[in-house]
Each structure stands twice: as structure tokens, then as C-alpha cells.
Design brief:
The protein has 18 helices and 14 strands. With 468 residues, it is α/β, with parallel strands linked by helices. The longest helix is centred in the first third of the chain and has 20 residues. The structure holds pyridoxal-5'-phosphate. Pyridoxal-5'-phosphate (PLP) binds next to helix 7 and strand 8.
């Protein structure tokens, strides 16, 4: 036996009990809830015991450091999540940051509907009302569609369309469009769950009309087209245009559904947006049904928007799954406000559309103004600058479509850019920025009104030594 192990006490025995550590945290910060103090203490002590058991001697044998760590963990547990962050990445539709930010008007509409509302009551007659009639009417007016319906998100919309139109039968899709969107959404998997049989046609890079023609048989229920939301194909490629596919569908009596992923309901071609981003134009090319997300380019709440032929949409509405996949009242109210804003031609009030259409000259002026506010920090080993940058739209939309943007750059001689970015991320509010070439890049394109002040405060807190 190793004589040392007899004399040396097990370090785990020096750790306090969970209750004692939890009390120490509550004494430091009385407003923290009991459950968070207890949970933080338990998690921290579990982790410490485990690492001590592996023979490691972690940082926190001393009670002061232990209580400080537990307090930070309790604060994090007590925080409401998701909570607000400042998006300084330049990526307007950032999946990890909640995609499209809602306009203040949409937020107010959702808040107003959060209590009792006329969600399913027709106030004039006192009879039961249709919860989505108001948004459907606006969607029809914006897109020219015969009918519209909404689901919880676009994945739900596609599932509902496939289940309604093709359950137990075959759906023909190009191999070039069997995409994975991220966050585990894969077109073939959704099709399997919808109980449809996938018939792949063409090759990864080339699919022709004759490929679809040859695949159509007695079991075929529909032709599906999926937008390549997050990648581009270049080189020796061929795909069948929607118009040609729709003509084939009409000839064979088969519905054509297009999953657009992301789309707008206003024409942004003058801002350089690709024409397929306009949902109404896809219907005019002959699609029977198109679906897309509410919180990508549309700039509204999470939702799945479906536009198309009335008979098809009525069948989708009657599908028992529709109830399971429906949009909630907060989303409906925020969506209604957003659509009303588009109908009134006020698209600049929608943050995503405003961000994506702001000219580079205006962004340059904003970046310079922000750098000016921070100028006094540019001393003692801190370097500040302004640079033109390319920003992507993000969120699996418009791949290959980069926008000219402007960034404020920050670097410090005493701290790495990654360490500075990490400190900004845990600030209050957190600021999320990019790091490149040893610098933190703060892109002004995605800053919302009032964010400049928050960025300034966050940078001051991160760079200035604390006052003693
Ligand atoms: C984003 C996307 C989806 C999923 O939409 P959600 O609203 O996230 O459910 C489906 N299909 C395509 C092509 C997409 O780009």
C-alpha cells in the first residue's frame, strides 16, 4: 500500500455541502432564487468531485473562489433564456441568434394578443371565428395566391403538404435538391416521416425534364422542388426550371409543390435580390403550392407560410395534422402586423428588410460614427479602425449573395481577439461579433436602433481597467 495515501486526506472531503454553498451564494446575492443557488451549487460540486476523483486538483479549493463560481453559475441559471443579444456579426438572418428580429410593431402586436384575444371569436356575430383568416387574406393580397394558410414553421408546412397530397404514394425529387438545411432538417427524412416514398431522379449536378417524365407512374402523387437555400452549384450543372416542371405537372395531372425555404412577398429585385426570392412570382410560374419560413427573408415571426390553389390548401386545412402543426396566437399577431406593414409599402420598418437594403455608403457613415464614439479607447495597445467588409444574409437564404458592409475593428496588444470576443459575449447585454486576422469585427449592418450605445458600453467594460 502506498503510505502516502494513508496520510493525505481525500481532497473531496474539504468541499462544503451543497446546502452550505447554496446559502453562501444567496448571502452574496439575496435576489437570486433559491432553486438556482441550490442547482448551481450541486452542479459545481458534482463537477469538482468528479475531477478530484480523477486525481486532478482544480482551482477551487478555497471557499471564496468556490462561492464566486457558484454565484456566476446561479446567475446564468436564473437568467431568462433566450435573452437579448446584440448582433454585430453582419449576418442579418443568424440561425443561432434567433433568425429575423421582430419589428417593435410586431412585438407590440404579439404582446397585445398575449392576454385574452378574439383569436377564435367573431366579435360581430359572437360566433366561432377562424384564427388565421386575417393573415390568410393579407397573404393572398400580397402574393396574388388563390389561398393561403399558416403553420408553426416551414418544416411543418412541408410535412403537412406531403402528408395531405402524397401519403402512401410517390414523390419525385431531383437528387440535386435532397438538401440538409441544418438543425437536422433533411428533405429525405421529412419525406419518410410524412409516409411518402421518395423517387430520386437525375444526378447530384444534373437533372433533366426527361428524368422526371420517366419517373412518373401510377403511384406518383406529386412533383417536389426544393430550393437550395444554403449552397450553390456551379460548373457542369442543369436543373429543370419551375415553369417547365409545372407544365409537366399540368400535362400529367400532378400537383407541383415548391419548398422555397426563404422568400419575400415584395419584389426586392431592385436591391439585387434573386428573382426566385419573391414567392408570388413562383406561383405565377405555375407552382400549385409554395411554402417558406416566416422568420427568414420575410422578416416576421417563426411560421410556415403556404400559398397556392384553394382546393389543395382546403385539403391541407382539413388534415388532422393541421391542428398539431398550427401557429400560436403570439405568432399570428406578429405575422399579421408584419404582413400589414408590407401591404402598406412600409418594408423599411421590418428590420431584416431594412438591414439588407441599407446602402454601403450609409453603413460606412455609421461605422465611422461608432469608431468616433470609441476613439478615446484607442490608446495603450488598443487599436481601432473601420473597414469595408462582405456580409452574408445567413439563415440558409440566398447563398452566394454577399452584401457590401462596414465594420469597426478592434484589437488589443494585451489580449487575443478571441479572448476579447469571448468577453463581449458574456457582457450585459452580450455582443456577438466575428474574429478575423487577430481583430474583432463589429459589423454595423445588423445593429438595431440603440445598439451603438450598447456596443460602446460593452467595449468600454471589456477594455477599460475596472475603477478601484
Ligand atoms: C429553412 C428551410 C426549411 C425549414 O424551415 P423552418 O421554418 O426552419 O422550419 C425547410 N426547407 C428549406 C429549403 C429551408 O431553407
Amino acid at each position: 500500500m502506498n503510505p502516502e495515501s494513508q496520510v493525505k486526506p481525500d481532497p473531496r472531503r474539504s468541499l462544503p455541502a451543497v446546502g452550505r454553498l447554496a446559502r453562501a451564494v444567496r448571502e452574496r446575492v439575496p435576489e437570486l432564487p433559491d432553486w438556482a443557488c441550490a442547482e448551481a451549487a450541486r452542479q459545481l460540486l458534482d463537477a469538482l468531485r468528479a475531477s478530484m476523483g480523477r486525481g486532478e486538483h482544480p482551482w477551487a479549493a478555497d471557499p471564496g473562489a468556490l462561492a464566486e463560481r457558484a454565484e456566476a453559475a446561479a446567475r446564468e441559471l436564473a437568467r431568462i433564456r433566450p435573452g437579448p443579444v446584440v448582433n454585430a456579426t453582419g449576418i442579418a438572418i443568424h440561425t443561432n441568434l434567433g433568425r429575423a428580429p421582430l419589428a417593435p410593431g410586431a412585438v407590440a402586436a404579439a404582446a397585445a394578443a398575449a392576454g385574452y384575444s378574439d383569436l377564435e371569436l367573431d366579435l360581430a356575430s359572437g360566433e366561432r371565428g377562424d384564427r388565421s383568416a386575417a393573415v390568410a387574406l393579407k397573404l393572398e393580397r400580397l402574393s396574388g395566391a388563390e389561398a393561403a394558410l399558416v403553420a408553426n414553421n416551414n418544416a411543418a408546412a412541408l410535412l403537412l403538404a406531403l402528408d395531405t397530397l402524397a401519403r402512401g404514394r410517390e414523390v419525385v425529387v431531383s437528387r440535386g435538391e435532397l438538401v440538409e438545411i441544418g438543425g437536422s432538417f433533411r428533405v429525405p427524412d421529412v419525406m419518410e416521416r410524412a409516409g411518402v416514398r421518395l423517387v430520386e431522379v437525375g444526378t447530384t449536378n444534373r437533372t433533366h425534364l426527361r428524368d422526371y417524365e420517366q419517373a412518373i407512374g401510377a403511384e406518383t402523387a406529386l412533383l417536389l422542388k426544393v430550393h437550395r437555400s444554403n449552397f450553390e452549384q456551379r460548373g457542369y450543372v442543369a436543373e429543370v426550371e419551375l415553369g417547365a416542371l409545372a407544365a409537366l405537372g399540368r400535362e400529367r395531372g400532378l400537383p407541383v409543390v415548391e419548398d422555397l425555404g426563404s422568400a419575400t412577398l415584395v419584389n426586392l429585385a431592385r436591391h439585387g435580390f434573386p428573382p426566385e426570392a419573391d414567392a408570388g412570382s413562383r406561383l405565377r410560374l405555375g407552382a400549385d403550392v409554395v411554402c417558406f419560413s416566416g422568420d427568414k427573408l420575410l422578416g416576421g415571426p417563426q411560421a410556415g407560410l403556404v400559398l397556392g390553389r384553394r382546393a389543395v390548401l382546403d385539403a391541407m386545412r382539413r388534415n388532422p395534422l393541421a391542428r398539431a402543426l398550427r401557429l400560436d396566437k403570439l405568432g399570428l399577431a406578429a405575422l399579421d402586423w408584419t404582413l400589414g406593414c408590407l401591404l402598406a409599402g412600409r418594408e423599411r420598418e421590418i428590420p431584416v428588410l431594412r438591414q439588407l437594403t441599407t446602402p454601403a455608403a450609409e453603413l460606412m457613415a455609421r461605422a465611422r460614427a461608432l469608431a468616433e464614439r470609441l476613439a478615446d479607447l484607442g490608446t495603450e495597445g488598443v487599436e481601432l479602425g473601420c473597414l469595408p467588409e462582405r456580409a452574408f444574409v445567413g439563415g440558409g437564404t440566398l447563398p452566394g449573395f454577399a452584401l457590401d458592409s462596414w465594420v469597426v475593428t478592434v484589437s488589443s496588444r494585451v489580449r487575443s481577439a478571441a479572448a476579447l470576443a469571448a468577453q463581449l459575449r458574456v457582457g450585459d447585454p452580450p455582443v456577438v461579433a466575428r474574429v478575423r486576422d487577430g481583430r474583432v469585427l463589429l459589423d454595423v449592418r445588423t445593429l438595431l436602433p440603440g445598439d451603438e450605445g450598447r456596443v460602446e458600453a460593452a467595449l468600454r467594460a471589456a477594455l477599460e481597467p475596472p475603477a478601484v
